[in-house]
Design brief:
This protein folds into three domains: 303 residues, Rossmann fold (3-Layer(aba) Sandwich); 86 residues, no CATH class; 102 residues, Trna Endonuclease, Chain: A, domain 1, CATH 3.40.1350. Helix content is 23%, strand content 24%. The chain has 13 helices and 30 strands.
C-alpha cells in the first residue's frame, strides 16, 4: 500500500520563528470607558489593547484567564494585495505574509476553547495559500467551511473579471465539538413566507409538509383514511414518515392536514414557533449580511467620512458570525481590530470581547466608536436588531516596554520603567505563573498550581533569609524565588528553587523588539548573488528525498 502523503506549504524563511517576549499590559485610564450606571447583565471586563498584535497575542497566551478561554476568533488581516491603504501596509511579499500569518495563527489556536472556532476573511490573492497554512496549524479534519461572502453587488466594468466576493475560512479546534455547539441562524423572510394562519390556529402561523420518506419500509406502509373516507397509501417508492402509533398521535393532536376540503393526501402541520433556525450555508449574499458599501455608510454616520475606513466589514456580517459561533457571555477576540466592528457587534450582542490594534486608529477610531456604543449613541449597524440600549464598558491597555534593556556598558539589566509590581507580573508570565499577589504572605506573587508559588524581588537574599522563607512555605508547598543575587546553600532547602534575574530569562526571547509587523521598507536588501526561491506546496511522504513539488508560483498575486 502506498504511503499516505500530506500537503505542506513551504516558503522562504518558514523555519525562522520569532522569540517573543511575553509582555505585561498596562492600563491607560484616559482611554478606558464605562457606562455611568450598571444594569443587570452588563459586561465591563472587555479589553482593547494598543500595540503590536503578535506581542499582544503572546501576552494573552501567557494569561491563564485568556488562554483556552476564547470561544470565537474573527480576524480580517491585510489581504496582501499590493494596494495602498491609509491605515495598513497591505503589500507584504508572499513569504513574509505567510510567516506573519503562521506566527499569529499558532498563538490564536492556543487561545481557543475546545469547541472554539476561527473565522478569517480573505480574498483570492492569498486565500488558497492561507487554506493550506490553516490545514497545517489546525489540521485538515478541523476545516469547517469556506464561506463565500458577497461583498459587493455592483459590477466592476474596469476588471477582467470583477471581484464580487471574499472568502471566510472557518476552522475549529475540534470539528465535532464545534458542530455540536454551533448555533443556527435566524429565519429569513423567504423561509418565513410559507407560514400562514388561515384558520386562526392559537399556536400561530404554520405550513404543511410532506408525510412521506424515500424508500420502502414494510412497517410504514399502513393505510390512512381521510375525513372523506378515502384511503391513502404512500406513493410508489416511498413510505409514511412515521410508524402508525406516531401517526395516530399526530392525528389526535390535530397535526395531520388533508387540505382545506379534507380530500388531500395527509401532510404534517409544522408551526413557525417550532422552527429554531436555519443551518448556516456557505453562501452569504449581501442582502442577508450586508456589503462593503453598507459598512462604509454606517462608518460615515458614526465616525465621519474623513475618519472611516476604506474597506470596513458590515456589522450584519459580524453579527451572523458571532451568532453562529458563540452564546451570550462568551469571549470573542479580534487581533486585527481595524475600526472596531467586531467589538461593537460583540458588545451589542452581550458577548465579552478583546480587540488588538497597532495603529493610531485604536485611539482615533475604536475608542470613539466604542464610547458611542456604550453610551447608547450608536443607532446604526445591528443596534436595533440586537435591541441595544447602551451599557457596559471596557479597559484600554498598552503593551509594557521590554523587561530588559542594555546599560551604558552593554549589559542587559531590568528596564528602569519597571516598578516592583510590574517586575513580579512579568516574571510570572515568563515562568507560567498566574499573577496573584497575596495580602497575607509577602512572598506569594503568583501561583501555578495549588501548592506552587513564585516570589520576585530585586534584593540580594542571604541564606538566613532564604531559610526563614523556607520555613514559612512549609513542606507541602514549593516556591520559585527570582532575585538579583543569593548566598550559597539554597540547594539544601528542598521546597525552594532560586533563580537570578535577569540571568534566568536572558536567553528566553528577543529583548527590546516592539514591532513584528514586517513592513517591507524595514527589511534589508537581498545580496546580489542571492537567488529567491519560488513559493511551493510540497506533498510530504516516504519516498525519495521525502518530498515532491505539486506546484510552484513565483508570480506575485
Amino acid at each position: 500500500m502506498a504511503a499516505k502523503t500530506k500537503l505542506e506549504l513551504t516558503w522562504i524563511g518558514k523555519d525562522i520563528r520569532p522569540r517573543l517576549e511575553p509582555r505585561i499590559l498596562i492600563e491607560d485610564p484616559e482611554y478606558s470607558h464605562h457606562a455611568e450606571a450598571r444594569r443587570e447583565g452588563d459586561i465591563f471586563d472587555n479589553v482593547l489593547i494598543h500595540g503590536d498584535n503578535l506581542l499582544a497575542l503572546k501576552a494573552l497566551e501567557t494569561d491563564p484567564n485568556v488562554r483556552g478561554k476564547v470561544k470565537c476568533v474573527f480576524i480580517d488581516p491585510p489581504y496582501n494585495t499590493g494596494s495602498a491603504f491609509e491605515h495598513y501596509d497591505d503589500g507584504l511579499e508572499h513569504s513574509l505574509w505567510l510567516g506573519m500569518m503562521r506566527d499569529r495563527l499558532e498563538i490564536l489556536r492556543n487561545l481557543l476553547t475546545d469547541d472554539g472556532s476561527l473565522w478569517i476573511t480573505i480574498d483570492d490573492n492569498e486565500g488558497h495559500y492561507l487554506k493550506v497554512l490553516c490545514d497545517e496549524v489546525f489540521g485538515r479534519r478541523n476545516f469547517v467551511s469556506n464561506i463565500v461572502w458577497q461583498k459587493r453587488y455592483a459590477r466592476d466594468n474596469n476588471a477582467a473579471i470583477g471581484s464580487a466576493h471574499d472568502h471566510i475560512l472557518v476552522y475549529a479546534m475540534s470539528f465535532d465539538k464545534f458542530r455540536a455547539s454551533r448555533n443556527k441562524i435566524e429565519l429569513d423572510d423567504k423561509t418565513r413566507s410559507p407560514y400562514k394562519n388561515p384558520n386562526n390556529d392559537p399556536l400561530g402561523p404554520w405550513q404543511s409538509i410532506s408525510f412521506t420518506g424515500a424508500g420502502f419500509r414494510s412497517n410504514m406502509m399502513y393505510p390512512i383514511f381521510g375525513p372523506d373516507g378515502r384511503e391513502h397509501r404512500p406513493p410508489e417508492g416511498r413510505h409514511w414518515a412515521a410508524l402508525e402509533p406516531e401517526y395516530k398521535r399526530l392525528l389526535d393532536e390535530g397535526r395531520i392536514w388533508f387540505g382545506s376540503d379534507g380530500k388531500g393526501v395527509p401532510r404534517v402541520i409544522r408551526y413557525l414557533s417550532e422552527v429554531e433556525g436555519l443551518i448556516p450555508s456557505s453562501w452569504w449574499p449581501h442582502d442577508e449580511v450586508g456589503h462593503n458599501d453598507e459598512a462604509k455608510k454606517d462608518a460615515y454616520a458614526l465616525l465621519g467620512k474623513e475618519a472611516a475606513f476604506a474597506t470596513p466589514k458590515p456589522e450584519r456580517l459580524l453579527s451572523r458570525i458571532v451568532r453562529v459561533a458563540t452564546n451570550p457571555g462568551d469571549l470573542v477576540l479580534d487581533s486585527f481590530a481595524g475600526s472596531g466592528t467586531t467589538g461593537a457587534v460583540a458588545h451589542k450582542m452581550g458577548r465579552r470581547w478583546i480587540m488588538v490594534e497597532l495603529g493610531d486608529h485604536a485611539k482615533t477610531h475604536i475608542v470613539p466608536r466604542m464610547k458611542k456604543v456604550i453610551d447608547g449613541q450608536d443607532k446604526g449597524g445591528v443596534t436595533e436588531a440586537a435591541s441595544w440600549k447602551g451599557g457596559g464598558g471596557y479597559r484600554f491597555f498598552r503593551l509594557a516596554p521590554s523587561l530588559l534593556e542594555k546599560d551604558q556598558w552593554g549589559n542587559w539589566v531590568i528596564s528602569k520603567g519597571y516598578n516592583p509590581e510590574m517586575l513580579a507580573e512579568a516574571m510570572c508570565k515568563h515562568f507560567n505563573y498566574a499573577y496573584a499577589p497575596s495580602t497575607e504572605h509577602y512572598w506569594m506573587h503568583g501561583q501555578s498550581s495549588e501548592g506552587a508559588f513564585i516570589y520576585v524581588t530585586t534584593n540580594s537574599l542571604t541564606f538566613d533569609q532564604l531559610r526563614a522563607i523556607s520555613d514559612e512555605v512549609g513542606e507541602n508547598r514549593s516556591l520559585l524565588i527570582c532575585c538579583t543575587a543569593y548566598e550559597a546553600g539554597a540547594d539544601r532547602l528542598a521546597n525552594l528553587t532560586v533563580q537570578k534575574i535577569p540571568q534566568a530569562v536572558l536567553t528566553a526571547c528577543e529583548w527590546g523588539k516592539d514591532d513584528y509587523s514586517l513592513k517591507i521598507e524595514s527589511l534589508p536588501m537581498m545580496a546580489e548573488d542571492e537567488e529567491e526561491e519560488p513559493l511551493t506546496v510540497k506533498a510530504v511522504g516516504k519516498r525519495g528525498d521525502g518530498t515532491r513539488d505539486l506546484f510552484a508560483d513565483d508570480q506575485e498575486a
